[in-house]
Amino acid sequence: MSNLQELNNAHFDKAAQDYDNLPQAKVFTQKSTEAILNGFKEATSEERLKNASVLDFGCGTGKKSEKKNIPWEFIMKVEVLYFT
Question: Which residues are CB-neighbours of 69 under 8 A, at least 6 positions away?
Fold first, then answer.
């Protein structure tokens, strides 16, 4: 891995850690997760809820789809990176 890539990774790892420790980020995560789950529950059947899988696309630090926040077994987290 190049030195530039290592510096980039270290920068964004620290930014993610700093973000996750902000009290307002925790409140935002909780409220937005509840809104997403409630919308999904209202839009589908109880049977589909039991068998649901979750794809957290653009997950950032992945807090919204942590097991404690999502009641389903399978969760795939995908962060989108763009390099030019």
Answer: 29, 30, 33, 63
Per residue in 5-54, pLDDT (tens digit) is 888 878 888 888 888 788 888 888 888 888 888 888 888 888 887 777 77
Rounded CA separation 19/29 (Å): 11
Number of domains in the chain: 1
Look up residue 30 and give its amino acid.
Q
Rounding to the nearest 10 degrees, give the CA dihedral for residues 61, 63, 64, 70. 130
Residue 16 phi, psi dihedral angles, 5° rounding: -65, -45
H or E stretch at 56: strand 53-57
Q: Which domain holds residue 33?
A: 3-78
Give 42 or 73, the one with higher predicted confidence: 42
What is the distance between the alpha carbons of residues 81 and 84, in angstroms, rounded to a whole number? 10
